[in-house]
Amino acid sequence: MTPPVRIERAFVAPVGLAVFGASVVAAAVAGKLHPELVPLAVFTVAFPLLWMVLATILSYSTAHALRIDDVIVPTRLRALDGFRLRVTFGFNRYRFPAIGIMTKVNFRVDDIVVDAGPWAEIPILETRRSGASQWDVKVKQRGTLLVGPVQAVVEYPGSALRVTATFDERHTITVLPAIYELQPFTDALLAGRHIAAGRFQKLPVANEEYVGAREYRPGDSPKLIHRILSLRTQDPSELYVREFQDPSRDDISVVLDTSPPAGGDPALHRYRFEKAICFVSALCKMFAARRLAVRFVCQRAARDVMTLRLRALDIDLDLLDRQLAYLELGGDRTTLGRVLIDEVRRHGAAVIFVSLRPNEQVAQQRLPIVTLTPDHVPVFTREVVSR
Amino acid sequence: MSDWRRRADPAFYDKEPFVLRTVAQVPRYSEDAQAEARFDVLARDPMVTAATMLVAISTCAVAIGIEPLASIWDWVRAAAFVAIALTAPFTLPWSRHAIKVECLVITGIAVAFLLARSILVAPLPTAVALVALALGAHGIRTTIRNHPQTLTWAAFSAILATCTYAFAFSSSAPKPYLYLAIAGIAIAYLSVCVLAGRVRRAELIARPEGVLSLPQSVVPLIDRSHHHAVISWLA
Questions:
Q1: Which of A43, A99, A110, B153 has its CB 3.0 to 4.6 Å from that of A20, i.e. a possible disulfide?
Q2: What residues pair up with B32 in beta bridges, in sequence order?
Q3: Cβ-Cβ contacts under 8 Å for B44 (sequence gap 6 or more)
Q4: What are the backbone dihedrals phi and psi of residue A81, each rounded to the nearest 5 degrees, phi first?
């Protein structure tokens, strides 16, 4: 049970109140001049005054007696996804039920504050009972969504005061990036990447796993020849070799560009960055789901390069989303170039570079990597799906 | 369709944020739109019309009955009150009646006649009351649009002002009349209570069902609804 931390009072329509006050004085003076009309004058003046006083006292005491019993809010959700916010109010007073309570909740994302409502009404709240206000909230920006404080306004008709009770209920929701649904042909990004990279290890080691067979290529160790499969072929000169894979080694490196492009519209860069983040998230999930070891690399800030090794485990993918939720455009091109070269030097891994620039620099073009510019992202994606 | 546009028009990706910003719908009433919706609800509410007429008729009846109808001028005064009682409910800000202008004119003439009579008897208090009335009417007219609860205070003030006028010119009132007058004023006040409740209902009906954050350019992904960080609406 959370009581209000602050009670604010504001006059309702001061102009109307002033006119009413002047009318009351005038009627009282006019009535006093005629003693035979005193009962009528008293009634005429007393009725609205008593009503106003009663309504004002009720408004004030109702606001004081309100409590928040419960707030149902998730701890995390995806951008473009929604949730139902439910705030349960209790009423801790012995007599007179509360009528027409207007409630609202403030939302904040970064420097954007939504404090205009919408106002949800609790028509009547019996004594010692509870009533709930509900809102559907859709969040579109990743990061942190702050929910709260909660406000309840009580203003009985005829009350001179509009009384606002503020409850210090604050909840933090982590908004993860939204998900792209990728096209089935996104696999094409990996076409030829493993083969082209070649193998440095000639013989399997203890921790490598057999993953399949392929045609013999000059340079392959004869010890790897798959004898049974080779004998089955029609052509005696056609040989097959066994392929092994080290589960501890990364199959794919996904590098995200976090350095803001020079010039141009900052809003457009920001927009592209948001798209790139969601695309990268979907890409990593797709590869991880296919039991490929994914290494995600990006620069968070100056001298802060983040590396995540992702497997098809919820905990890994969740960690990726949480990191992406707070990622900002804090990289620089020098570090990015060094990161890309490091990733290329990692033997066996295919490198996918998600860039924010329509045209990459010559240095990046020379590297044996797949570069995805903002123009490529829509090709591999369908409509946004929120889950 | 949008998917096709993206494929057919390579530049759509660059144009997309601006295109989306252009077509964004903001389903929030502005203050003006809210006031219009509220007035619309009040205009279509028969209880508001009935309560307003009841306030006007019962108050004017009290004012007419407080003085004996002895001379021709008393009958003219009574006619002025009757005119006010019949036309005033149609002069309210939300009134959509075709005869609103005519009613305003008739009410104005009737009020002018009553004030003219008052000026002849007591010039200074009437002048002060006239200035106060003009200021009050102007203030209420400007605030009632965005603060409809002002209507409660305006109705109370109208009843009190009419009673003040009636008291000022009253010579002697018989006891049975006092009871009738108290009953009439009570009816008028109870009608104001009903009015206050209906205004509250109109406020609730006209309130926006949802709000959006401030428009912004940073939007995650291709979403065709709005460019807003947070959207909240009533469940």
A1: B153
A2: none
A3: none
A4: -100, 160
Query: B178 and A39: CB-CB below 8 Å?
Result: yes
Provide, as residue numbers in chain B, all residues whose Cβ is less than 8 Å from the Cβ of A86: 235
Q: Which H or E element spans position A281? A: helix A266-289
Kindly state the DSSP code that residue A130 receives in the 8-state scheme: E
ipTM of model over 0.85 = no
Reading the block at residue B127, the tokens are 């002048």
Burial class (CB in 10 A: 0-12, 13-18, 19+), B201: middle
Once rounded to an integer, what is the mean pLDDT over residues A100-111?
A: 87
Distance CA(B201)–CA(A43), nearest Å, equals 28
Report the C-alpha gap between A324 and B220 in whole angstroms: 12
Residue B203 parent element (H or E): helix B175-206
Across A244-248, A291-295, B174-178, B212-216, which has the greatest mean pLDDT? A291-295
Please compute Rg for chain B using Cα positions: 26
Return d(Cα A105, Cα A88) in angstroms, integer.
Answer: 12
Q: Which among B153, B173, B210 has the least Cβ separation from residue A20?
A: B153
| pLDDT, tens only, B120-150 | 877 888 888 888 888 888 888 888 888 888 8
Whole-angstrom Cα distance, residue A325 to residue A278?
10
Q: What is the pLDDT of residues A208-257, one digit of tens each?
A: 667 678 788 777 788 888 888 888 888 888 888 887 765 555 578 899 99
| Burial (Cβ within 10 Å: 0-12, 13-18, ≥19) of residue B31 | exposed
pLDDT attached to residue A323: 92
CA distance B20 to chain A (A): 12
pLDDT on residue B160: 92
Alpha-carbon torsion angle A335, A338, A339, A342, nearest 10: -160
Q: Residue A36: its pLDDT value, please?
A: 82
- Which pTM value belongs to this model? 0.75
Query: What is the DSSP-derived secondary structure letter of residue A140?
Result: -
For A171, the enclosing helix (H) or strand (E) is: strand A171-176
Q: Are A89 and A103 in contact (CB under 8 A)?
A: yes
B140 touches chain A (CB under 8 A): yes
Q: Chain A residue with minimal CA distance to B227?
A: A140
Cα(A251)–Cα(B139) distance, rounded to whole angstroms? 75
Q: State how far residue A15 is from chain B, nearest Cα, in angstroms.
A: 6
The Cα B93–Cα B145 span in angstroms is: 8
pLDDT at B56: 92
Q: Which of B161, B170, B189 is opposite residue A23, by nearest beta carbon?
A: B161
For the segment B104-116, the average pLDDT, to the nearest whole number, is: 88
Is A88 strand, coil or helix?
strand
Q: Do B17 and A17 touch (CB under 8 A)?
A: no
Size of interface A-B (CB pairs under 8 A): 234
Which pair of structure tokens corresponds to residue A217?
């290529």
Judged against a pLDDT cut of 50, whether residue B26 lies above it is answered with no
d(CA A368, CA A364): 9
Rounded distance between C-alpha atoms, residue A50 and residue A139, angstroms: 47
Rounded mean pLDDT, A309-317: 82
Give A351→chain B minimum CA distance, Å. 24
Tokens of A209: 């796993």
Q: Which residues pair with A305 in a beta bridge?
A: A299
Tell me, rounded to whole angstroms, the distance of Cα A284 from its chain centroid. 18
**Interstrand relation of A143-154 and A161-167 (parallel, antiparallel or unpaired):** antiparallel
- Does residue A387 contact residue A289 with C-beta atoms inside 8 Å? no
